[in-house]
Design brief:
The structure holds two protein chains of two kinds. Chain A is mainly β. Helix content of chain A is 0%, strand content 57%. Chain A is built from no helices and eleven strands. In chain A, strands 2, 4, 5, 9, 10 and 11 form a six-stranded mixed sheet that branches. In chain A, strands 1-3-8-7-6 form a five-stranded antiparallel sheet, with no helix packed on it. By secondary structure, chain B is mostly beta strands. Chain B is built from no helices and eleven strands. In chain B, the strands form two sheets. In chain B, strands 2, 4, 5, 6, 9, 10 and 11 form a seven-stranded mixed sheet that branches. Classes of the chains: A mainly beta, B mainly beta. At the A-B interface, strand 4, strand 5 and strand 10 of A face strand 4, strand 5 and strand 10 of B.
């Protein structure tokens, strides 16, 4: 795995959709992941996508992958206050290492 | 199924000391990875163990070491602690045969070096 970049902050109104973006550089990435970290807690795996897929939907979560541009996004529909957290995108390649972005802090305002 | 457990949850040490952190993976998981999380550097990969063998290593000095036991439990050791070693140390386990290699994280050990 190599560099993974994501924007640092996102503020969203409760009930709106959140979109968190991520770019990566390792073309050998096989799987890409989204993790959520709440204050004082470890990382919770939210969802993942295989590199030959374009989209994956799981309840309120939609992952879009543009492999050509090495761009990954996570959309959270109907964002709730409980969605306030830090979201990390990560990728894994043939080296078994997870490479993480710096994390996007999502703040949900009423 | 019980999740990944890490002990201790909090630890305070002084410079020059050494520390050992423990991780018990989810039952049946054979791979254990360790990560260091700091505000400045984010999440960085330390090493990964699979079936008692270190399979991969990140870019950390030799003061950081680890091992895995036959029951897949893992320990990591940091010798000659420095102030910059203060961090949240996370361990993750996975089954790892092929496929998505979903890694499940423990709550972490918060190490403070004074």
């Amino acid at each position: 795995g190599e560099d993974v970049e994501q924007s640092l902050f996102l503020s969203v109104r409760e009930g709106d959709s959140s979109v968190i973006n991520c770019t990566y550089t390792d073309s050998s990435s096989t799987y890409l992941y989204w993790y959520k970290q709440e204050p004082g807690a470890g990382l919770q795996l939210l969802t993942y996508i295989f590199s030959n897929m374009d989209m994956k939907q799981d309840q309120r979560l939609t992952v879009l992958l543009n492999k050509k541009d090495k761009h990954l996004s996570l959309r959270i529909a109907d964002t709730q206050t409980g969605d306030s957290a830090i979201y990390f995108c990560a990728e894994i390649g043939n080296d078994y290492k997870l490479s993480f972005g710096a994390g996007t802090t999502v703040t949900v305002r009423a | 199924k019980a999740g990944v457990t890490q002990t201790p949850r909090y630890l305070i040490k002084t410079r020059g000391q050494q520390v050992t952190l423990s991780c018990s993976p989810i039952s049946g998981h054979r791979s254990v990875s360790w990560y260091q999380q700091t505000p400045g550097q984010g999440l960085q990969f330390l090493f990964e163990y699979f079936s008692e063998t270190q399979r991969n290593k990140g870019n950390f000095p030799g003061r950081f070491s680890g091992r895995q036991f036959s029951n897949s439990r893992s320990e990591m050791n940091v010798s000659t602690l420095e102030l910059g070693d203060s961090a949240l140390y996370l361990c993750a386990s996975s089954y790892w045969t092929s496929g998505a290699n979903e890694q499940f994280f423990g709550p972490g050990t918060r190490l403070t070096v004074l």
